[in-house]
């Protein structure tokens, strides 16, 4: 297979019965087939340690702004998205085969993003608040205003309908 970034030739590396394509003599990128990346993306996963220092040929020309095509699917352009809520690493994924392309050094950066599960949860909370906080605050204020209106109506109805007409509040009534 041909490297989608520098057009070099992939080297096949097998780690824990998973075959990964590396661009060893070129840009240093790596290709993970469907769901393989999940086994290497956490810092505590020992399998990923072997992939942190892939040799890079400094003469390999790679335009990081250029969109690349999937090495497995003909003509499918990889989609760029952030790996985590910290938005420090952009990875390329294929919408057709769900493969993942990492440029040189991205796996090492991914491993350094979070030191603990609590740090990961806190980063997710911050990102959630940043994305949805203003809208949720607007909805909360709107809900409080509706509640205040409902209470005003209920207070008005107290004078129209005395408590002895309410079910359960009288001894021998019709209710």
Automatic annotation (TrEMBL):
It comes from the Bacteria. The lineage of its organism: Bacteria, Pseudomonadati, Pseudomonadota, Gammaproteobacteria, Cellvibrionales. This is Transcription factor zinc-finger domain-containing protein. Pfam families: Zn_ribbon_TFIIB (PF13453). Residues 3-39, 69-110 form the Transcription factor zinc-finger domain. InterPro entries: TF_Znf.
């Amino acid at each position: 297979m041909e490297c989608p970034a520098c057009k070099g030739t992939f080297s096949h590396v097998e780690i824990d019965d998973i075959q990964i394509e590396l661009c060893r003599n070129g840009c240093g990128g790596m290709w993970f087939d469907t769901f393989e990346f999940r086994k290497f993306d956490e810092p505590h996963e020992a399998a990923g340690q072997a992939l942190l220092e892939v040799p890079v040929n400094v003469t390999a020309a790679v335009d990081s702004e250029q969109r690349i095509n999937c090495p497995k699917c003909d003509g499918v352009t990889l989609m760029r998205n952030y790996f985590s809520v910290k938005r420090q690493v952009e990875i390329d994924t294929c919408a057709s085969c769900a493969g993942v392309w990492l440029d040189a050094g991205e796996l090492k950066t991914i491993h350094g993003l979070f030191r603990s599960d609590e740090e990961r949860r806190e980063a997710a909370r911050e990102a959630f608040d940043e994305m949805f906080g203003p809208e949720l605050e607007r909805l909360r204020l709107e809900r409080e205003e509706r509640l205040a209106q409902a209470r005003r109506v209920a207070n008005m109805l107290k004078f129209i309908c005395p408590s002895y007409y309410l079910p359960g509040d009288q001894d021998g009534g019709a209710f």
